[in-house]
């Protein structure tokens, strides 16, 4: 066999052995040989190499059937790290995780609302540098960066096409800009899609094959999971439900239509509606929760309006995709909204399938908002460890 072919076979065997150790957490060399159908000498050689490379570590001893207890091996979750960025703006959240996507370090900053494109990029770089320093990890052990970006993106080109809240932000090759800065692969994705990925891990929903994940933020967005895979669309912009018409005679939207869902269900919409009802300003939509708990009628009316229109939107998309598992998330308690949404859904949903639709509140904490980006990096780059 030629040298190149031998090398390819070794690389393939190395990956098979590593994946076996990774998926089984703690295994003996005998277990690995049995499960991979490789010879014991081949397994022994590869495990020794990966132990020397710090990819695999000893984790104790198994039960002996006679003689010495066999050594257990598991994959080293600290062999490399990933960075995730949730670019909501003005809030920007970042996280660094190990290979198990456990949060090692977390950062949240509020950028000036009048930031333009150039200032935004400078602030991103500074926050990234500070996070790496705070984490204590060596930059060389970073596998890459995953960025969740609102607005319109082109994930194949690593471009942010349009981010309306930032002056001058059009057709920005943000993935390439950050990649040149950190010297590591950078992947971009719709922000809600990455949040859904993190939610599935946080709420142990990885086995849920079909799911709609709706996030209430400055706008409102949705991620669509079908047959266990994330539906991204041609450029990565599927699930943009903010401009779905839910009231044909409703408010006029800047998109040119009327009655768009985002006009009634986004954080900005809730703040506007409360101001219209009371003449008072609130700093953030989450301020409505304690007001509602104290019986504030205006706050309760805001949640009723938001929930009613959200329920209409859920009916539309649940019927469109034939998906019954719906998770709704925000940075504040959405239980008031979900009660009203469920009622709106119940009175509109077809009787034959009404009971199948489940709306639940998301469990992802703010400290986990950046972990979707980490998961994206790990999905793309985890096995690249075996090449180094």
UniProtKB/TrEMBL annotation:
Q: Which InterPro entries match?
A: ATPase_NBD, ROK, ROK_cs, WH-like_DNA-bd_sf, WH_DNA-bd_sf
- Residue spans making up a coiled coil are none
Q: Where is the signal peptide?
A: none
List the keywords (alphabetical). Carbohydrate metabolism, Xylose metabolism
UniProt name for this protein: ROK family transcriptional regulator
Taxonomic classification: Bacteria, Bacillati, Bacillota, Clostridia, Lachnospirales
Family, per entry: Belongs to the ROK (NagC/XylR) family.
This chain's source organism reads Enterocloster bolteae (strain ATCC BAA-613 / DSM 15670 / CCUG 46953 / JCM 12243 / WAL 16351)
Briefly state the protein's biological role.
Answer: Transcriptional repressor of xylose-utilizing enzymes.
Mitochondrion as a keyword?
A: no
Pfam family membership, one: ROK
- Report the record's Gene Ontology biological process terms: D-xylose metabolic process
């Amino acid at each position: 066999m030629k040298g190149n072919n031998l090398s390819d076979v070794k690389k393939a065997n190395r990956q098979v052995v590593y994946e076996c150790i990774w998926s089984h957490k703690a295994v003996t060399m005998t277990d690995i040989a049995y499960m991979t159908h490789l010879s014991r000498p081949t397994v022994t050689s590869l495990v020794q190499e990966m132990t020397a490379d710090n990819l695999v570590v000893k984790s104790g001893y198994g039960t002996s059937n006679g003689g010495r207890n066999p050594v257990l091996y598991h994959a080293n979750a600290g062999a490399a790290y990933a960075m995730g960025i949730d670019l909501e703006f003005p809030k920007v959240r970042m996280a660094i995780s190990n290979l198990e996507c456990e949060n090692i370090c977390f950062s949240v900053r509020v950028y000036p609302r009048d930031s333009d494109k150039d200032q935004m990029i400078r602030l991103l770089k500074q926050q990234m540098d500070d996070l790496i320093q705070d984490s204590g990890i060596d930059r060389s052990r970073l596998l890459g960066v995953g960025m969740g970006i609102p607005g319109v993106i082109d994930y194949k080109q690593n471009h942010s096409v349009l981010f309306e809240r930032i002056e001058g932000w059009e057709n920005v090759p943000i993935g390439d800009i950050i990649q040149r800065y950190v010297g590591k692969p950078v992947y971009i994705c719709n922000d809600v899609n990455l949040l859904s990925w993190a939610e599935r891990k946080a709420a142990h929903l990885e086995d849920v094959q079909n799911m709609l994940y709706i996030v209430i933020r400055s706008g409102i967005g949705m991620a669509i999971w079908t047959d266990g895979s994330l539906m991204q669309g041609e450029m990565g912009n599927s699930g943009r439900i903010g401009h779905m018409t839910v009231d044909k005679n409703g408010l006029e939207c800047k998109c040119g239509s009327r009655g768009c869902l985002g006009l009634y269900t986004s954080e900005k919409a809730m703040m506007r509606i409360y101001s219209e009802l009371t003449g008072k300003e609130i700093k953030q939509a989450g301020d409505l929760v304690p007001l509602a708990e104290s019986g504030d009628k205006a706050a309760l009316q805001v949640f009723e309006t938001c929930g009613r229109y959200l329920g209409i939107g859920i009916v539309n998309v649940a019927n469109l995709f034939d998906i019954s598992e719906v998770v709704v998330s925000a940075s504040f308690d959405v239980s008031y909204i979900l009660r009203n949404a469920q009622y709106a859904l119940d009175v509109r949903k077809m009787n034959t399938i009404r009971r199948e639709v489940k709306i639940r509140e998301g469990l992802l904490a703010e400290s986990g908002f950046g972990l979707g980006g980490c998961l994206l990096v790990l999905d793309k780059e985890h096995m690249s460890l075996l090449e180094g």
